[in-house]
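FW: tagging you since you asked about this chain on Friday. Here's the raw sequence from the shared folder, copied in full. Didn't touch anything.
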Amino acid sequence: MKFAIVMKLIVICALCLLVGAAGSFFPSSTGWYQNLKKPSFNPPGWVFGPVWTILYIMMGVSAFLILQKDISVNAVKTALVIFLIQLLLNAVWTPLFFGLKSPLLAFIDIVLLWFGILFTIVKFYGISKPAALLLIPYLLWVTFASVLNFAILLLNR
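HL: got it, structure written out here
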């Protein structure tokens, strides 16, 4: 692989990982979160870091595969814009949930995120099937996270 291509892969993966790292400014170890009622299927806190790290890397590789295509093609541009929108929605969830302490606003965001990921997968599929398939675990995890967010919302009304 050429140096420029490797650098592009590293940069896009780093961008995705930075979205996750930004969430660390809103720790889940606060008293507010610890005192919330959580459903029985709530995973232990240590699970989230490794899962999200893997997912952010997969997102980066997925976007990298799209960036390897002709960026002047409208379908590629549209797919990348949708990818960036869902990445922004991903970044907003943590400040909404932990920063504003609002499971309701976070739930609204995660539903929008879910659709953003789905639209990204659909757009990526028409350009690169591997890029689309790399996002399936992300969609599945966000589906689980949506159910978890909704359960916390209901349990803490």
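FW: The chain has a mean pLDDT of 95.
HL: agreed, and The chain has one domain: 3-155.
FW: great, closing this out.
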